[in-house]
Amino acid sequence: MRSTPRRAWRYAAALALPLAITLNALPAFADPSPDPVPPDRASSTAQNGVALMRIIVPDQAAVDKLASLGVDLAEYTKPVDGGIEVHAVLSPEESRSLRDQGFDVRDAISDQSDYAANMAERRQALASATADAAQTDTLTPLRAEWFTSLDGRRFLSVEVKSSATDAETVLTATWDSGPGTAPDSGGTATMSRFTDAGQYMYHRFNSPLPITATPTKVTVTSNRGGSITVPVTKWLGEPRKAPGKHYVSDFVDHYMDPTEVTNRIVALAKEFPKISEIIDLPYKTNGYRRQAQAQFGSGSGSELASTFYVTSKAYGSEGGNDISVALANPGRASSPLSVTVDGKDVVVNLATDASGAITSTAAQVVAALNGDSAASALLTASLYRTSTGTGVVAAAPATTLTDNLKAPPSVSRRPFQMKALRIGKTRDGSKTGVFLYCQEHAREWVTPITCVETAERLLRNYAHDPDTRKLVDDLDIFIVPTINPDGAHYSMYDYNMQRKNMVNYCAADASDPARRNSWGVDLNRNFSVGSVFDGYTGGSTSCTGETYAGPSELSEPETRNEVWLAEKFPNIKFAMNTHSYGGYFMWPPGAYKSAGRETLPRPDLGTEEYFWNASNHILSAVQAWRGTAIWPGRTGPVVDVLYSAAGNSADEFWYNKGIIGWDFEVGADIYDPAAKRYNAVGFQPPFSEGHEEAMEFSNGQIGILEVARAYGKDKQRPGSKLVVTGKTATSTTFTFTVDEPANVYYTLDGSRPTLSSPKLTSAGMREGAASITVDKTTEVHWFAMDLAGNIEKNYKPDGNGKNYRKETVKVDGKGGGKG
User: With 0-12 CB in 10 A as exposed, 13-18 as middle and 19+ as buried, what is 134?
Assistant: First the structure.
């Protein structure tokens, strides 16, 4: 789900244009000013408008030229469309001087107003820290766990929240090395302060710490005086039954494009017709296709005003690639501008003056092409980006338009028929449904083979593996291995870092050929819940943004297919969206509004505990393949462990359909013991690594199916207890505990508890149950209900019975701490 900056090859690709384009020479640079200190940079009590400015240059030679001019360059460069972005500290006079010399000096990254704001914030923080220094903070433990990963190495993960939220609060963790050892014998480390959207979340280690012995307790102390000691528990490693001796796996041996993947599931359905079938999803994609284009002029420097491009009306595969355009010098004086068309060959006869020199500007050529009925039936001409079109164009030989697509003929250039593989012995809607889907983001090549591997295991093990037979007999499983077939084809054959689909919603100023790797909609930002259109963070409204949410919610056929499947088959109660990379296991909410970090409503306490409880089973299944442990710090709601992803599919299914939805990010970081650090694997690791990721996360998908089956078979009623947690002379505090994930409904006024009664809530993010305080002796009535709808003691909340739980909580004026 991550969006990463475009690599340098984006710039290289931008130059791979038709032959009519020529590179512009470097601008003529003026000599440096003899005055080494411009007037508005001279020493004074004010900074006189000095700012950190963005400059776009065509190549490294221009960067070197800036350095030779003595420009105060930051140590920052980034390839961008049109060249290289660099940053420089400039005064207004210096900015004007560079612009006069032909440099593209753009907006300010930061200026003196930012400096003033930073200083004001610093003064406020220091004042706050001084005021808080005398107050001891309260530390709340969130998680303290050890685990093993890959080669059996042990790691420690700790999360603690301080009541002091300022940046000056420092937490230090110290742990023992086993039972009976000294409290600090295992090690000590300073914890990192985790913030998001400007808000303090909690303290943690940036990555789990390698340890040599298994600790039993960890003590966390604060420079504010707070201290807490908690037990360290084992994360993951739930014992799993070994597969039967006839169980088979490992059905993928290379990265597969969407055509291969789709053919594979069609073949599986044909081979196993009694327990599977293909569902054609109703909305075809736009297809792996583009209009054909050609650009005239480089668009750089002095050529910007004379640069334009043409785009075919037909897709390249439907005739657009056969069109050619020539800019002809008539070879005579005082010739008018004209356009001639012969079949699909377009010739622009450029105008000349009395001396025979060409006078046609880019704007005039664009108008002539669009105004000619024959030419405009074939193509549309547009000025390049910010060009005014006032520059005189140069003659150019006939240039054939191209859609620039490189996939082999086996990849269709027609709208793509997305398909779902439905697996189950009984496929009439009576069984619990599970939706497994992969590759919403095109560049995530491991994910579709993960879904294929899971489908193969289910079908090929059905006949001889009893555990597989239980899953197929008791569930209704829907697998869509590639949600984004068009973008995935483009990623595999044209631009491997393509994230989005291939649809271009950009206007003419962002639709030139060099922009082709920027077009498309991020499908996991195109859904209707918590979207950018509702003000949530994490999606873009820029058509070239990597997280572009589209022109409207559910604008894309790919996302409408997902919603259609959930609506068509309401028995779907679970879903898993598989992405890469990073090794995350997440669930809703997945979006927030930045102002106040206002998240989508969090699931109730029972559901949250169900997510956590299921994660142990599912992630232990992942670990069983080769030992990979998904970190505790990368497990939890999306907004708590990753970022805000406005308009994502898991939120769509949970908030609109009540479907319990998870997100995998396959490809966990791998620890390098020699370097003592974790290394990321990326979107497309060598297949040897990608294969292992597919195998282990297919294990995880099977684990999800096991969780779903247990849900469908669950007839066990939950049990609960009232636990007094504290007493004072004037009040008593209590909470409830349950023996499985369940919600507790209670009353304090003597009435029957119902599903409309107050519900036990969470004490806070990644914390347990909240406490309830009463200031007088109170008879508490309550019952617990699990997610499958089983109710404690078979109580009927909507009936008249009184077999709810009840207990008197006393306030006796004695105090005395915990009960």
Answer: exposed
Instruction: Return the SS3 of 6.
Output: coil
Q: Calculate ∠ Cα 261-267-273, nearest 5°.
A: 130
Q: What is the pLDDT of residues 584-600, one digit of tens each?
A: 999 999 999 999 999 99
Can you tell me the distance from the alpha carbon of 414 to that of 374, in angstroms, rounded to the nearest whole number? 26
Question: Do 737 and 723 touch, CB atoms closer than 8 A?
Answer: yes
Q: Are 187 and 174 in contact (CB under 8 A)?
A: yes
Q: Which residues contact 412 (CB under 8 A, 6 or more apart)?
A: 259, 287, 288
Contact 445, 683 (CB under 8 A): yes
Distance CA 483, CA 473 (A): 26
Q: What is the pTM of this model?
A: 0.83
Please write the tens of the pLDDT for every residue from 486-500: 999 999 999 999 999
The two tokens of residue 114 are: 């930012």
The three-state DSSP-derived secondary structure of 40-69 is HHCCCCCCCCCEEEEEEECCHHHHHHHHHC
Q: What are 378's two structure tokens?
A: 């074939």
Q: Would residue 271 be called left, alpha or beta, if left means φ above 0 and alpha means ψ between -120 and 50 degrees?
A: alpha
Task: Count the neighbouring beta carbons within 10 Å of the beta carbon of residue 717.
Answer: 19
Q: Residues for the chain: how many in total?
A: 819
Phi-psi region of 724 (alpha: psi -120 to 50; beta: other; left: phi over 0): beta
* Alpha-carbon span 664 to 185, nearest angstrom: 36
CA 553 to chain centre: 17
Radius of gyration of the chain (CA): 32
What is the rounded CA–CA span in Å between residue 375 and residue 280?
A: 39
